Amino acid sequence: MSTAGTQETTTYREAMREALREAMRSDDRVFLMGEDVGRYGGCFGVSLGLLEEFGPDRVRDTPLSESAFVGAGIGAALAGMRPIVEIMTVNFSLLALDQILNNAATLLHMSGGQLPVPLVIRMTTGAGRQLAAQHSHSLESFYAHIPGIRVLAPATLEDARHMLAPALADPDPVVIFEHGSLYNASGPLAPQAASVDLDHAAVRRPGDAVSLITYGGSLPKVLAAADELAADGVDAEVVDLRTLRPLDAGTVAASVARTHRAVVVDEAWRTGSVAAEVSARLAEESFYELDAPVERVCGAEVPIPYARRLEEAALPQTAGIVAAAHRAVG
Amino acid sequence: MTAARPTARPRKQPASPKPGRKTTTDRRKEHAGPPPAGRAEPGRRTGLLEAMLRIRRFEERCVELYSASKIRGFVHLYIGEEAVAVGVNAALSPEDAVVSTYREHGHALARGLPPEAIMAEMYGRTTGCSGGRGGSMHLFDVSRRFYGGSAIVAGGLPPAAGLALADRLRGLPRVTCCFFGDGAFAEGEFHETANLAALWDLPLLLVCENNLYAMGTALAREHAQTDLAMRAASYGMPAWAVDGMDVEAVAQAARRAVEGIRAGTGPHFLELRTYRFRAHSMYDPDRYRDKAEIERWKSRDPIGRLTERMRDDGEPVDEELARIERRIADEIDHAVDAAERAPEEPVEDLLRHVTSARAGEVNRQ
């Protein structure tokens, strides 16, 4: 990440908005569409002010028709545009899953390479705001299951600011998951453009005692856990997957080759999760490096409940991550 | 227990149309009325006849090849519906786009895809129009703006709206034509797309091939209201029901709709009332249709009707027919020979086209 120049304080939301603004300024094929992205300013305020700057053709409010507007994004991409489609939350994206799976991810192959779909889909994911079961799920693994699409989970300000440009440059569909708890995250961000690759996981904190592997909204919790572990004398390495498909198994394996212990933290349900895939890769590729069984800290297998105590109990928390790391270290 | 009931209906608020938006009434005034009936394609009839016959003979050969296990998978024949693809295509220009369904051999042939590319696709060969990855239901040819067959009923409608949106955003005077069936009319994706297209005035031609059956379910068993054109009109777009067994009537309706779309009056809907003479697919034993019904529709065969009309008008159709039949037989023989001889896709290329090729990347997904 570039650190030169004066750092300015920004939020994840503003970083994402700046990325959208830059994309629309630099390429007139780019337009944004989705529910309430225009006059309302985006359900989470990400696109506030963009309608005024770019007008209603390029910041396009849609009816509540996820399948139609995601599919329209696919068609516009086929015709050479570079649409960015916002879906309010991953829960609603299931209404468009047919379009994403059966068209966006499939057309290139099914047409023998004739129809690339350069579409970017952004959506909010995750729990932690007492929004109950139909607004809180983490379904990244549904999308990471699908060949033909790239799945991103920006967890830092830099990634929020700089992942969009390479996503738009990708000739294939890219799905970006923005964890709802991250929008207000703030901190310094270098003002000039940095280039960010979409192929590699990032080591967010080096360490040699245990690898804590995570992505998205769980990263702050995992970094907090690493601080606690450091106070206990356990030097944890934190790996942020960043890209959930294609998974950068190499960076994960290299970390485990240093630490010989792994804890995978994932807010989603354990069964069939990204954490399950990471664990399987470790079993396949790092079996002889491991000095302890892989630990997983995942969401409880329950529809996310409303009540605060129950919701907290359903999600990975720092204390649970610390405990899992201690078990792994032994 | 008595539920509280309102004593009077709430007063209906006067509708306040969005500024600058045309109401349904405005649109229908501008571009109203069903198109005139057939017999108005002079000079084009021989071409229409040949295009329909090409589809008919191609499909008949598909039956033979399927029975001989040369082609496999699901194969949905277009026999009986030829007037729809041919009539609609007559109204489109090469710059326009076509989105099709899984019953698409007719759409592809009418659009000008070479029979050998389609046949090779069904043989699963490298020379197929989708490199052997699509088969009968997924024919593509981007050079002809033929955006292929969706085998998810109604799945092609939203992307068709997107193709039209791109043209609208760039100010290109092109039309996107999307074929779908009466089954798709029951899907949410149809209704979402119809609303979106009308809301955004998209240059989209919605072509509903109403062949009276959604696979085996009769129209009246799938729709509470079977007047599909009337329902489509409720979205605020011109919508006409047309005899889909009369290629001239189809061509004229499509031409009128395309003219309207190019003139900027937004999407148009055609309900083309047609019938498939064969079963839904090669697997279908066709137990749900009455034989007498099938015979009744066969008596309205679009190829026979056009031939008779030409004969009645004193056109030398019989000599033409002999010539056309020979040419088509040669084309199809050639297509089959070429498919038989074409190489198969190498297994090493299995993962090709899953993602776009990137330098230095080997099947990294």
Keywords for this entry:
heterodimer; A: 330 residues; alpha/beta; Rossmann fold; 2 domains; five-stranded mixed sheet; 14 helices; globular; B: 365 residues; six-stranded parallel sheet; 13 helices; 41% helix; disordered C terminus
Task: Characterize this entry briefly.
The complex is a heterodimer of chains A (330) and B (365). Chain A is of the alpha/beta class and 330 residues long.
Structure report:
The complex is a heterodimer of chains A (330) and B (365). With 330 residues, chain A is α/β, with parallel strands linked by helices. Chain A folds into two domains: 9-189, Thiamin diphosphate (ThDP)-binding fold, Pyr/PP domains (Rossmann fold, 3-Layer(aba) Sandwich), CATH 3.40.50; 202-329, Rossmann fold (3-Layer(aba) Sandwich), CATH 3.40.50. In chain A, 37% of the residues lie in helices and 21% in strands. Chain A has helices at 12-26, 50-54, 66-78, 90-93, 97-104, 107-110, 140-144, 157-162, 164-169, 219-231, 249-259, 274-285, 308-314, 318-329, and strands spanning 8-11, 30-34, 59-61, 82-89, 120-125, 150-152, 174-179, 186-189, 202-205, 210-214, 236-240, 243-245, 262-269, 295-299. In chain A, strand 2, helix 2 (50-54) and strand 3 (59-61) form a beta-alpha-beta unit. Chain A starts with 7 loop residues before the first strand and ends with a helix. The model of chain A has no long low-confidence stretch (mean pLDDT 96). In chain B, helix 2 (45-67) crosses helix 4 (105-111) and helix 5 packs across helix 13. Chain B has one domain: Rossmann fold (3-Layer(aba) Sandwich). Chain B is built from 13 helices and eight strands. In chain B, 41% of the residues lie in helices and 10% in strands. Chain B has helices at 24-30, 45-67, 82-90, 105-111, 115-122, 157-170, 188-199, 219-222, 228-233, 247-262, 291-298, 302-312, 317-341; strands at residues 97-101, 146-150, 176-181, 204-210, 213-214, 217-218, 239-243, 268-273. Chain B is α/β, with parallel strands linked by helices.
